[in-house]
Amino acid sequence: MRIDIVTIFPEFFDVLEVSLLGKARSSGLLDIRVHDLRDWTHDRHRTVDDTPYGGGAGMVMKPEPWGAALDAIVRDAATRPTIVFPSPAGEVFAQATAREFSGRDHLVFGCGRYEGIDERVFDYAATLGDVRLVSLGDYVLNGGEVAVMAMVEAAGRLIPGVVGNPDSLIEESHEDGLLEYPSYTKPALWRDREVPPVLLSGNHGAVDAWRHEQQLARTRERRPDLLEP
Ligand code: 6GU
């Protein structure tokens, strides 16, 4: 899978060189290219923002550098990409979104800063690819970089071969619409706290039933919204 990330803070993404995604990059499973939006400016100050038409607080990202960046990235692409703009005003990112993104050949992420990107950029991007505005949830970040990091990790780990043991992808929170069951390891007694005896019983049917009951109980308790029809 190819992933292009456009940002005014390319160094934010240095951490994509470590851990499982870093390995997937070295092995060629993931082709991640980080671009500095300012490379597509032409003035001495490499300006990417300007004051909003109609007035108001803050600055808006100018359309020209975005247009040039998207043109350059899509020009040498083999397929029509999915172009994702992180935005608190977007659809909410969920495991299903991660799953969907993980199946795409080419993702382009455009990280906005300030009060946002000139709206015409989204319209223009739709001529080059399938545009998605995506939010991590109902709170505000300073820019799209942290959100893109989360989306790249959530989607990247679902690409076959990125996570060493595919079984570890199956029994996780949200994959079956429920929260994950609690996990324990040795010792069986730690600081007066026991591991639930059923897990030591060797009865796999009883273990499975207990785990499912735990999933339902904690989902009811912590995330009742997930159980609504
Ligand atoms: Cl995707 N961007 C920003 N700036 N803030 C957010 C967000 C995204 N998701 C939640 N808050």
TrEMBL record:
Keyword annotations from UniProtKB, A to Z: Cytoplasm, Methyltransferase, S-adenosyl-L-methionine, Transferase, tRNA processing
Residue ranges occupied by any tRNA methyltransferase TRMD/TRM10-type domain in the UniProt entry: 1-228
Residues involved in S-adenosyl-L-methionine binding: G112, L136, G137, D138, Y139, V140, L141
Segments traversing the membrane: none
Gene Ontology, cellular component aspect: cytosol
Taxonomic source organism: Microbacterium protaetiae
UniProt-recorded name of the protein: tRNA (guanine-N(1)-)-methyltransferase
GO MF terms held by the record: tRNA (guanine(37)-N1)-methyltransferase activity
Reaction it catalyzes: guanosine(37) in tRNA + S-adenosyl-L-methionine = N(1)-methylguanosine(37) in tRNA + S-adenosyl-L-homocysteine + H(+)
Subunit structure: Homodimer.
Pfam family for this entry, one: tRNA_m1G_MT
Keyword S-adenosyl-L-methionine among record annotations: yes
Subcellular location: Cytoplasm
Documented EC number(s): 2.1.1.228
InterPro entries given in the database record: Alpha/beta_knot_MTases (IPR029028), tRNA_m1G_MeTrfase_C_sf (IPR023148), tRNA_m1G_MeTrfase_TrmD (IPR002649), tRNA_m1G_MTases_N (IPR029026), tRNA_MeTrfase_TRMD/TRM10 (IPR016009)
NCBIfam families: PRK00026.1, trmD
Family of this protein: Belongs to the RNA methyltransferase TrmD family.
Highest taxon above the source species: Bacteria
GO biological process: tRNA N1-guanine methylation
Function statement: Specifically methylates guanosine-37 in various tRNAs.
Gene3D superfamilies in the cross-refs: 3.40.1280.10, tRNA(m1g37)methyltransferase, domain 2
